[in-house]
Specification:
The protein is an alpha+beta fold and 169 residues long. Helices cover 15% and strands 28% of the residues. It has one domain (1-169): Golgi alpha-mannosidase II (Immunoglobulin-like, Sandwich). The chain has helices at 2-8, 36-54, and strands spanning 68-75, 80-85, 94-99, 105-112, 118-123, 152-158, 162-168. The chain has a five-stranded antiparallel sheet with strand order 1-2-3-7-5, with helices on one face. Strands 4-6 form a two-stranded antiparallel sheet. The model has no long low-confidence stretch (mean pLDDT 89). Residues 134-147 have a biased composition (Polar residues).
Length: 169
């Protein structure tokens, strides 16, 4: 999904963007939402808004260090960044994994704090968003292998130029 956005933005001349920008007497080009990439962006923003409302960890500690923790910022070779967002209850925590390259990362290992299956609650590469559909349709199970300084880990498929959000079931 993010890849589609990058494909559109650097190549788009000014005339391709919102042609009525600055003209308060003209309506926005809402009809563009009928077309693939535009509809995909709209669907993605809708899903992100729904995720934000559904996951307290994304807003409860927004302005406090207790709500955020880096898990891995050192994977320069794969350009993957991982962090956790924490809510008031430990059960509300989510892990966000960002793959910042156009290369899918199958079987990528991520360290987690506790045992238990994780479900994908958001994937920016969903076909509904115009993405390629690289996902984790089934829950990923923890393995008793330390990773990223955590006692357990999960293996999952990372989409190209994508974000995956995992939550413990």
């Amino acid at each position: 999904m993010i890849e589609k956005w990058f494909e559109l933005t650097p190549k788009a001349p000014a005339s391709c963007w919102q042609t009525c920008a600055g003209d308060f007497q003209k309506s926005l080009d809402w009809h563009l939402l009928e077309f693939g990439p535009h509809a995909g962006i709209k669907n993605c923003v809708k899903a992100l808004n729904e995720l934000y409302r559904a996951e307290p960890s994304l807003y409860e500690h927004s302005f406090s260090p207790e709500g955020f923790e880096w898990i891995d910022t050192q994977d320069r070779e794969n350009s993957v960044v991982i962090y956790a967002r924490k809510g008031l209850k430990p059960a509300d925590s989510v892990v966000v994994i960002l793959n910042l390259t156009p290369v899918p990362r199958p079987d990528y290992r991520v360290g987690v704090l506790s045992e238990g299956d994780r479900s994908e609650v958001f994937n920016s590469d969903a076909t509904d968003f115009g993405g390629s559909g690289v996902s984790n349709p089934n829950a990923v199970s923890t393995e008793n292998q330390q990773w990223h300084g955590r006692p357990q880990s999960v293996r999952l498929n990372l989409p190209p130029l994508g974000a995956v959000v995992l939550k413990k079931k």
